[in-house]
Structures are given as structure tokens and as C-alpha cells.
From TrEMBL:
It comes from the Bacteria. This is PEP/pyruvate-binding domain-containing protein. InterPro entries: ATP_grasp_subdomain_1, PEP-util_enz_mobile_dom, PEP_Utilizing_Enz, Phosphohistidine_dom_sf, PPDK_AMP/ATP-bd. Residues 832-903 form the PEP-utilising enzyme mobile domain. Pfam families: PEP-utilizers, PPDK_N. Residues 31-310 form the Pyruvate phosphate dikinase AMP/ATP-binding domain. SUPFAM superfamilies: Glutathione synthetase ATP-binding domain-like, Phosphohistidine domain.
Amino acid sequence: MATRSTDPVTLAPQTGDVVVLGGTGTADPAVLGGKAARLADMIAAGLPVPPAFCLTTGLFARYLADTGLAGKIEGAEGGAVRELILATRIPAPLADEVLAAYERLGRPRVAVRSSALKEDSAARSFAGQHDTVLDVAGDAALLDAVRQCWASLWSARATAYRDGDAAEAMAVVVQEMVHCDVSGVLFTVDPVSARPHRVVVEACRGLGEGLVSGRVSSDLFVVDDRSLEVVEERVRYKVAKWAPLAPGKIGMTKVDAADRSVPCLDHARLAELAGLGLRVREHYGSEQDVEWGLRDGVFHLFQTRPITTRPLPGDDAARAGTLSPYVVQQPDPVQHGTLWSRMDIGEIFVGLMTPLGLSFARYYQQNVHLDCAAALGVRDTGDADLHMGYYQGHVYLNISYSAHLLGQALPTRDQRHFTKRFVGEDVEGGAGGAGGEGRSLADYVNPFGKFPGGIEDVLSTAHWLRCTAAEAVRMKSRSKEMVASRLYEFDRARRLDLSRMGRRELHAELTRNLGYFHDSHVGYMPYYINAFGFYGILTELCRMWLGKEGQNLQNRIKTDMSSLRTVESAKEIWAVAQAAKDRSRVMKIINEEPLENVAAALRADDEGGVFWERHMEPFLRANGTRGHQEMELSHPRWIDDPSYIFQMIRRYASDGFSADDILRRSSGYHDDSREILKKLSLPQRKVIETVISLYALCSELRETTRMSMITSIWLVRNVVYEVGRRLVEAGVLHSLDEVAHLDFEDVRSYLAGEAGELESFPRERIDGARRLHEYRKRLPEPPLTFIGEHDITQAVRPAPGGARLSGLGASPGRVIGRARIVEDLVWQADEFEAGEILVTRYTDASWTPLFAIAGGVVTDVGSMLSHSSIVSREFHVPSVVNTKYATQRINTGDMVMVDGDTGVVEVVEG
């Protein structure tokens, strides 16, 4: 970092069009623009702002006049004006004034920022609408960056944000660049919950651009504005940061291992920062949103703006503090007596979801879920609004209502057979905690009651028997049809060019894809529920007939599960890795190119192109639509971004990993549970063996057809992101990252031609959705199950330290190994060493390749039938799930004992 200049800069008095901020010059926003005027005011007030000068609106006017652009841009389209400015050099007299000020600043590396007239005003912030160019050095680069900022006044996104208002003059700030160790934002009041006396600080490693874009993990702190004491903190595992990669190049890089689990700021620094924020608030007499950075122990303030957005009555932000997943208020017995669960709901709903993901889940609820219930033989599928609920960004299944309706089916006539499969230890054991999760099922009464008897019961039973008989006849043939249709739809989608379609054609494509989405989910549901049911029967039979000896036996029985499609994907990555390893040129590209460039580099290379066609394409056709949290449309699939695959190829091809490891682990297991079964009578043994075979069959069909369901989501995602690309082009969105903050119904309405871009996607709604999602990211993980309502703000936090954790023993065995916290698959897959203990919040199908080399698996969230449990058992890896706080109490490098039989995880060496 350049040395901060302390000498005042005196400018040529005859122009006055270059002004040192905070000096004796003007601080008029009409001259400096909103951002520069604020910075000048902050410097004059003695706040720690890096030195800067401003190219005034007057200088911009002279540039337009001297180059003849003033006449050319009159009435011209925004895009054309932007291109004209980018192509027109700054005349020498003006350039000399700019460069003279740069010389007086000391010629450091600088950040060049736009400062439009209304930017950072109380009415409209214009945040992110105009360009900023970071880490600029040298005369030519500085002048180019200035023209880029001027041109951004006519960018598509700025034009859309003005919503018909004319473009006004633009000033530009040139500010000394500070390569921060830690950066973030400070809100002098909680911008979402509006709880009083709370200064909210979000902090990340490196530069603040990573936090603003939502691409890096950040710590959250809340400081009481009266005492400056830290009253709340959530320290996350931080894998990546924005930082200089080379002179003039800023990008993503890894956080040093020693800094990943450590808070970005200690309490003393937080008190100092909060004090600065309060000084800013007092100076302006209003609540402020402040951007800050810390370098070598010194705080710098880069920007402040009034907090212009607060929760609006009736919008989603207003529901941020609600205690129930119900979207619509219910009668009191239902509101407070409903059992909610997010255990084992298909893995695709696991974890916090974005506004786009939640709205797509709502579409599924309204348009697909009832037909899925009908496919199970349920005659009366009930009210769609009651089947599912949403709590703090998580999707919950209404177990009470589902159990009520499933009472129409013979196997679940007794509701306990269904409800106990979805109940976590918090409810079942009556454990303490905030909200309703401390209640036990022992005294639980379903507020919806039992399904009506009499003629309704007779009709429902007859209907279920007919559907069940039809399913038994059709289950295998339907599976084959679904596999064939998946490949057809995948190949068809690869051939389509959505960018060439008009809005009406794109609407037709989305409608078609949603039809396939419906059919694939309805076709998949019986396999999923039947496998679930046979597992439950197997568990119950083991308990009744084998007692203690049969405890957890259902998880030790080796069924024919090695054909699981999820497990096969890990084997196939291994095969691709071996093919790459045999080609030195291919392996060199995979190892040495940046992850985002590997695919293009392979296809552009002669040998790499052959490898891609022979190995990558078949793999992607079979597995490419997999991805993290699959119902979440904002997450790319492997075929969209194969970075994770290349990371696993690097890992599988590295020295020390045997070519037979993955195959041996998943197929060479000796099943000694059969010896226990021999103690049963012959009729009992035959019954259990029959149940095992049915469980294995349904599991195999479930995994085979799951790819159809996953592919259908990818098809919908393709259309949504084509809409997003067009919205970025039109300036409605700043970047494709903002697609995550759209509402799926708005996308459908827009494609149906009901309104234009600005009407369908108003900026206020996008910003409100983003704020609400950021608020939810700060909150503790809600429980897997609870009854009635839950107050997440009162959730019990883990005590400091804690070398021993209890959870659910999900896969038997005992192992000791070094722990590795994994937060981000793409960024960390290459770090994971064979035999390490994988510690993470939760897993889904995209994590399977890591299981093949893990010594053990520990998760914060999970159940006996969650992905982490099933795949751990398949790979015979000891696993403990639902520990709640493992990622907060265990550090990378700790020696950890994992006991998958007792459910205990213990740090044996820190």
C-alpha cells in the first residue's frame, strides 16, 4: 500500500474543476456529485477517509464540449452514448489537470469511483449503478478509468434505475487504494429487523467487493450502541476473499488457513469501529450505511449513505420476525399445535434458500405437491397451502397435516408410523430450547385429528389399494421411461439456443419444462416414499425381533445399494480422473489453469479436446445436472460450472490415492449382520429378507429416477437464467448474481407478457429480497423439527470450547483422524486429504465424491435418512449427524474421534 499523503494539494485556481476532498474547496453535491460531497464532508469532520480528489461535474461538461460529444449525445440511446465516451480520449489540457492532481497525491495505486449528482442521497442511493475501477496505477490507466466512470452514467443498469429520468452530470472520485486485510459494512441500525440500539457489522477477509457481491462468507457482529459491547456474534468459516492477484488485477483467492475460523475483528476493534459509525450517524443526524476497511490495524471509511430502505408493511421483510412457518395465520390450535419438519424432505430443500429458491418451492407446493400425494394413493389431497411452510428462509413439511391426509392409506392409518420418521431428537426427547421444539411426541395430539371414517374411509381405502396395485405393476417400466425421457430432454436442451428465442418462445419453453418438472416429480415420489416406508418397517422389525442386538441393524445390513446413482457418480469421476492422469498434457491443463478456464482450455487443445469428447461429455450427460441444494435455482449445476469436477479430478489423480480405493470401499464390504439374522426363526428371517429386497429395489429405482427429477429442475433453471441475462443486458439487474433475489412468479408473469422488465422486476422489490436474505444468513440454523412456533432470536448458542459433541450415529464404526471444515466445495475440494474427517453443516448429492476418500463424516444437520447418512453407510465411513455445532466447535487440523455407533464426536487433540 502506498504511503498516505499528508501534504495539502493546491490546484490551479483558474479552473477549479479538480478539487481536493476535505480541503478548502467546495463540498457542493452539484459540483462534486453525491459520493464525493459526502467524502469531502467526512474528511472535513476528521473521519478517517483515505485522501482523494474529485473531477467535478464542470470538468465533465468541459470534456463533452471540447470533444464535440455534447451535440452528439443529445437524444442518443444510452448504449450509443456510452460507447462514444469510451472511444473518445480526454483532451490534453483536461488530462494534464487530472494528472497534476494525481502527481500531488503521490501517484499511489487508486480506486476510481463514480459520483453522480443524486448518488448516496437520502432519496435514492444509486448503490452499484455506476462503475468503480479498483487498483489503478499509471497515467494512461487512470484516464481510461475516468472515462469508464463517465460512460457508466449511460449504462443499461443506471438508465433502468433512473426509470425515465434524464442522465445528469457525473463527477469522479480518485481515492488512494487501500488493500484491506478486513473489510465490511456497518449499519447504525439493523436494516431489516429495526430492533433498537443495535449497530450491525458484517466483516470479511480482504476487500469489501466480495461481501457486497455475496460471493464470500462473512462474520456478523451486533454491538450495543449505548455500551459499545458486543451482544451477538456469528463467526463463519471463511474460505475465499477478494484481494489483489497481480498489480491491477483484483479477484477471488483463498483465505490463509490460520484465519478461516478466527473472527475478523476482536471486541476491542468492534468497539472502535462502532464508535466511528456512531460519529458518522451523529454528524449526519440520520441512520447510516458505512463501508469500511482495516489495514495494518488502522480503520478507513470509504463511503457512507443514508439507510434508504426499511421493512415495508405487508412485504416479506415484515415477516422476518414471525414465529410460524404458516404463510397465512391459522386458528390457534393449529398455529400452536402443528408439527413441522425439514428432515428427509428429498435433500433438495436442505439449507437456507434464496428468494428465488423459496418462490420456486412455493410454485412446487401449489402446482406439483398435491399430485405427488395423489401418486401415493391419497384420494383427498387437501389444501395446498397447508402442506408446506417457510421459516427464516428454510422449507418445512407440515407433518401434522400430511399425517392427517395419509391416514387414508393403510400403512399410515396409525399416524405414528409416519410422524416418527420425521421427528428429530429435539421433539422426540423433549430437549430444551427456544420455541416449540422442546415438546415431546408422548403427549402430542394432531390438531387436524384423524381422517374421517365411515364411507370416506371405505372409499379412500379402496382408492389406495387400486393405486398400490397399479404401482406394483408399473414401477419398473415407469422407471425405464423416466430414464429415457431424461436423456431425451437433456440432449434437446443442449441443442437449444435460448438466447435466440423471443419472449413468447421462451415462455413456451418454460411452460414445457415445468410440465416435465411436474411429471418427473410425480413419477419419482412413489419410489422415494416406498423406500422410506420399507426402511421404517425394517427398523421396526429389527427392534421387535432382535431387541438390543438389532439396534441400528438396519444401517449395517448390506443391501444391493452399490448401484445407487449417487455413489456411481463418484466412481465415474474417479474413472475420468484416471483417464486424465494417463494424458500428461490434459493433467497439466487441469492442474495449472485457473478453475474457471479449465473447460475452455481443454476444448481448445488438441489432446484436451479428445479427452473432453471421450470422457467429460459422457460423464456430464450422465451426471451433469447434479449440483448443490438442487431445488435452489440459483446454484449452478456441474454442467454449468464443472470447477468442482476438476477439483475432484485433481484430488483423485494425486499421489497417495490408490486407484482401487473408491471401488473397494463401496463394493468390498463384508456384511456380518446376516449372522445376527440367523438367530431368527425361518418365517421371521424370510419376512426381514423380503423387506430388505423391497427396500433395495425401491432405493435403486429412487436413485435411477432421481436424475430425471434433478434434470427437470436444471431445465427450468436454464430459462430463468436466460431471463436474468436479458435483465442484466437491459440494466434491470446489476449482474447475474442478482437472479437469486428474483421471485419465480415474476419471471413467469414477465415471460407471459403481462408487463415489461421494469414493471415485472422493480428495483425496490429486488433490494428488499436481498436485504431479507442477508438478514436470514445472519441467524442461527433453525431446528430440524419443532411444534407450533419457534423464536430463532432466542436460540441457544453453543458454549465456548466443547471437546465432546453428541448427535445421531448414522453409519457404524469408530475412527480417529484429522478434521477438515469444508464450507465451499469448489474452493476446498483440492485441499481435502484422503482419510480426513469431513466436518460440514450438511451435505447433498454433490458432496458424494468427497465421501469416497473421507475417513469419517460429521455434520451439524442431518437424520438417519439424510444424504450424509445414506452415502456414509454405502461407503462404510463412520458418520455422526445432527451435532448442531460441530462446525463451530471443531477446527481444521483437530484430531477427532468419530463413533458412528454411539453418535459421539470428540476432539482428542486440538
